[in-house]
């Protein structure tokens, strides 16, 4: 499929042939869902923790005699039934991550790129280069109509462009190796540089 290539000032800079195997698939929500769920679960800290009855700070002395009270038989105030006692079967630190085959992860990325292309939310620019001036870049982004955009560059990101984009709300930039399904789907516009397209095609073939 062919797509126009533009410059940051909006001028046309030719066109580019995009690989149908990456940008021409029929997007499948089930594949995208599985990959996003894998990403978010791996990112979850899993540091939640509650105190069990062996960790709460009450005395372990028997609170009243075993028989004759007419109430239940308790040993100490750390029992889960009491206020501020230990929690029974509460959360403990653990990993929420699970495995997903590499082939499936690559397939998910292909479907994410295809989803953006099909929705008309894919833009290809000649290069992401700037002199490090936020005001100038912000004006160009506003003129292009990008509100929540992700820019994917080649193997490395231009230092001046990254510095200029750092303070622009809603604009993020990643090298091609950092391209992932969650970040692509989260943004309204996906912007690829020509170097980014080449790097993604090499990575996903």
From TrEMBL:
The gene is rplD. NCBIfam families: rplD_bact (TIGR03953). This is Large ribosomal subunit protein uL4. Forms part of the polypeptide exit tunnel. One of the primary rRNA binding proteins, this protein initially binds near the 5'-end of the 23S rRNA. It is important during the early stages of 50S assembly. It makes multiple contacts with different domains of the 23S rRNA in the assembled 50S subunit and ribosome. InterPro entries: Ribosomal_uL4, Ribosomal_uL4-like, Ribosomal_uL4_dom_sf. Keywords: Ribonucleoprotein, Ribosomal protein, RNA-binding, rRNA-binding. Belongs to the universal ribosomal protein uL4 family. GO terms for cellular component: ribosome. Part of the 50S ribosomal subunit. Pfam families: Ribosomal_L4 (PF00573). Transmembrane segments: none annotated. SUPFAM superfamilies: Ribosomal protein L4. Residues 81-100 are annotated as: Disordered. It comes from the Bacteria.
